[in-house]
């Protein structure tokens, strides 16, 4: 089968590799009908994470179930499914508490790769959610977004306790930040301040529900947020970048007693304990438990209440994945869909 | 009046200083009837915080109102009162959200000093809570504890979301950690694991509600907590020390999706962003908004439902404050009460 492989930083190739087979009785094999490139795929692509030989890429996917292991009960061959970027049993205490991304049996889909014609999905019953009905082209894009970026933005908004009466600040205008705005809006936030200096992303931010735009960054950005919130800071802040500057911007933009939801994968971030102590904000982040939200997100998508697929501004056939990576890397594209 | 002054690390003197007077119309002057020495007073005493010339010490107090400013409405001369270690207006948005320790008009009582015969209390209406009735000697000790260590332990337990069905781990067996145990018990926690290697403190921990004791520290302590919790970690962890080791112990002992309430004043603590990301725990800490809890705590004390005053294991007259500091420093005493 054809699959996207990273050989070295910047070196993306689409190659023939062996088609996956069932390994565990709880596995399923799906035929991937669409995949995409994630902002976090750029970390190894840019050399910010080590690359050890050719690595299968991708962790977002929708597809049709081709084969199931003997212990799979709820998912059937032929089901059209969406899954999280972390496979989870959905039965352990951590999953049951809604943190499926830290399931005791978790498997990171990025270690398997989904930018490929087929993919093995561990813990199929726990990981996959069946979609009923025939999604339109727009709904299909949105379902693909649900697999990671929507679910991650949603988690960030929930972790930041976005809701009625709240002012939400969003640090990061990538797909996750933008969908954090959509989530905050859907959760009832009163005011949503997008921190962005790119006109096209500002436009999408407003389309998703942003009421204010702040172009300043770092402590200047913090000062603007304070100005816009009567000196107090935001109630809820979504961090969707993962750098030292973005984390401090998020923490300092939040009022004491407020909440920061951080979902940008931390790279080189160190936080001073005394700064956290003095800030007195709640901090919750990590890999998003997308599985927790999938049934609700699928329902919102299939009833056209949300349109997260609007973040895809470039669609390419799988064979042109390398151009997709370049477009994301150079910020010519916010989010790239790969079709088969 | 007589007051405790720190001249240099280790150099505590009881001296005559000027009796405080009203400065702002929102101030009150109280005659302090009991004060105490806090674990956090030991940081400057030990030289871990800079000492700039003779500094008035203390921030915990109960007393009788002697004088009030023109704008004080709710507090009357003659009231017997308890106040928080942070003065707050109790009306700003931060106070109204329950984070009075970060009031936009906050005044740290430690910058004024309360180990003295009289003390000026800023924002008297916002800071002080009147106690009705005649407290017994035991209740008096407990009310004094409410001013900081009980309120701080209580906040840590609330921040850690201790409650029914939860396993709570407590890092730190000082007065705050011990009262965090009392709080967790009162909040309905199912199981409370005290991390302590001192027999007398273990005994008090059990008296306050601890069900298990773990003597190991650091990653060994974490491993023991995991063992005791089916491999998952605690749901809720109280951190009441403020060192690098104690913070990591608290974060790592907590299961994904769990909560850490940290109230030890951070000294030299740095946290890796990626460690927080992977841990996926909620982190909330800082100076405790004791004022939020005071009415409830006073009620619990005056109806003998809790006995936090049991943490005082040494009572000395104000004049012998230096011995009190030595006893705390050498861990001969858990908590010292100063009487007048």
Strand content of chain A: 25-35%
| End-to-end distance of chain A | 11 Å
Largest sheet of chain A: 7 strands, mixed
Class inferred from helices and paired strands of chain A:
alpha/beta
Tell me the Rg of chain A in angstroms.
19 Å
Query: Can you give the helix content of chain A as a percent range?
Result: 25-40%
Which architecture of the largest domain in chain A does the CATH hierarchy give at level 2?
Answer: Alpha-Beta Complex
CATH topology of the largest domain in chain A: Quinone Oxidoreductase, Chain A, domain 1
Oligomer: homodimer
* Total of domains of chain A: 2
Count up the helices of chain A.
Answer: 12
Could you list the spans of chain A in which at least 5 consecutive residues all have pLDDT below 50? none
CATH class of the largest domain in chain A: Alpha Beta
Q: Can you identify the CATH superfamily of the largest domain in chain A? A: Medium-chain alcohol dehydrogenases, catalytic domain
Mean pLDDT of chain A: 97
Shape of chain A: globular
Largest interface, counted with CB-CB under 8 A?
A: A-B, 42 and 42 residues
Can you count the beta strands of chain A?
19
Keywords (chains A, B): Metal-binding, Oxidoreductase, Zinc
InterPro entries (chains A, B): ADH-like_C, ADH-like_N, ADH_Zn_CS, ER, GroES-like_sf, NAD(P)-bd_dom_sf
Cofactor (chains A, B): Zn(2+)
Domain Enoyl reductase (ER) (chains A, B): 7-338
